[in-house]
Amino acid sequence: MASKKYYAVLRGKKPGIYKVWTGGEGAQVQVMGFPGARYKGFEKLEDAEAFMAGKDSVSSPGSSAAGKKKVRPYEDAGLDPLAYPIHVFSDGGAIGNPGPGGYGSVVVMEDGSRQEFSGGFSLTTNNRMELLGAIIGLEAVKDAGVPILLTSDSRYLVQGIEKKWARGWRARGWKKSDGSQALNPDLWKRLLDLLDHMDVRFQWVKGHSGHLENERCDALAQSAARGSSLPPDTGYKGKE
């Protein structure tokens, strides 16, 4: 994926277009800890300017101009970010699936402070790393006692929780409704055990779409997957 050259801060401490993400003059300091911040990275200046003007939209392949679908910024995906003092972002993947894999998590606290986590395994799957990324992020804030918003590009993870599929699997002894075995019960159990005592809402975003924290998690996961002397994923049973 091409690197971003412009970072548009539509809602932040000092809205504007920035050429760097980190550092005192970067966009990150303008949005971290700012409730309801809206920002996005772009490769072209004109796209960043369109976002600032409220014209950030895309159309599906083959659609006409009249049929363009407005894309909601991830911070406005039907949820009120102000209701969640803590934000967790996570991602994960495996090279070859199955293959060497890694996860990445970013935790942003109410005061704007942040922590990053990552790890990798010699043989695992995309879904296992997506789950583990969320778990690691939530374990870092499990005693916070406040609502948490977790953002991921994994439909497997988000729908598994928001549609209560995983809770159904657990209630049936890790069986799906058709009687087949649910995959990754060790990680789903670990995640549900956390959620039983936390107030967490899961939100899906499209991967590789300019979401800065999702891209950061992706970079952490990819770097971990390419590490040396990776340990085995003892929970992977070779069934996916």
UniProtKB/TrEMBL annotation:
<feature type="region of interest" description="Disordered">
    <location>
        <begin position="221"/>
        <end position="240"/>
    </location>
</feature>
<dbReference type="Pfam" id="PF00075">
    <property type="entry name" value="RNase_H"/>
</dbReference>
<dbReference type="InterPro" id="IPR012337">
    <property type="entry name" value="RNaseH-like_sf"/>
</dbReference>
<feature type="binding site">
    <location>
        <position position="130"/>
    </location>
    <ligand>
        <name>Mg(2+) 1</name>
    </ligand>
</feature>
<comment type="similarity">
    <text>Belongs to the RNase H family.</text>
</comment>
<dbReference type="InterPro" id="IPR037056">
    <property type="entry name" value="RNase_H1_N_sf"/>
</dbReference>
<keyword id="KW-0479">Metal-binding</keyword>
<keyword id="KW-0963">Cytoplasm</keyword>
<comment type="function">
    <text>Endonuclease that specifically degrades the RNA of RNA-DNA hybrids.</text>
</comment>
<dbReference type="InterPro" id="IPR009027">
    <property type="entry name" value="Ribosomal_bL9/RNase_H1_N"/>
</dbReference>
<feature type="domain" description="RNase H type-1">
    <location>
        <begin position="82"/>
        <end position="226"/>
    </location>
</feature>
<dbReference type="InterPro" id="IPR022892">
    <property type="entry name" value="RNaseHI"/>
</dbReference>
<keyword id="KW-0255">Endonuclease</keyword>
<feature type="binding site">
    <location>
        <position position="218"/>
    </location>
    <ligand>
        <name>Mg(2+) 2</name>
    </ligand>
</feature>
<dbReference type="GO" id="GO:0005737">
    <property type="term" value="C:cytoplasm"/>
</dbReference>
<keyword id="KW-0540">Nuclease</keyword>
<dbReference type="GO" id="GO:0004523">
    <property type="term" value="F:RNA-DNA hybrid ribonuclease activity"/>
</dbReference>
<dbReference type="GO" id="GO:0043137">
    <property type="term" value="P:DNA replication, removal of RNA primer"/>
</dbReference>
<dbReference type="GO" id="GO:0000287">
    <property type="term" value="F:magnesium ion binding"/>
</dbReference>
<feature type="binding site">
    <location>
        <position position="91"/>
    </location>
    <ligand>
        <name>Mg(2+) 2</name>
    </ligand>
</feature>
<feature type="binding site">
    <location>
        <position position="91"/>
    </location>
    <ligand>
        <name>Mg(2+) 1</name>
    </ligand>
</feature>
<dbReference type="InterPro" id="IPR011320">
    <property type="entry name" value="RNase_H1_N"/>
</dbReference>
<dbReference type="InterPro" id="IPR036397">
    <property type="entry name" value="RNaseH_sf"/>
</dbReference>
<dbReference type="InterPro" id="IPR002156">
    <property type="entry name" value="RNaseH_domain"/>
</dbReference>
<dbReference type="InterPro" id="IPR050092">
    <property type="entry name" value="RNase_H"/>
</dbReference>
<comment type="subunit">
    <text>Monomer.</text>
</comment>
<keyword id="KW-0378">Hydrolase</keyword>
<feature type="binding site">
    <location>
        <position position="153"/>
    </location>
    <ligand>
        <name>Mg(2+) 1</name>
    </ligand>
</feature>
<dbReference type="Pfam" id="PF01693">
    <property type="entry name" value="Cauli_VI"/>
</dbReference>
<keyword id="KW-0460">Magnesium</keyword>
<dbReference type="GO" id="GO:0003676">
    <property type="term" value="F:nucleic acid binding"/>
</dbReference>
<protein>
    <recommendedName>
        <fullName>Ribonuclease H</fullName>
        <ecNumber>3.1.26.4</ecNumber>
    </recommendedName>
</protein>
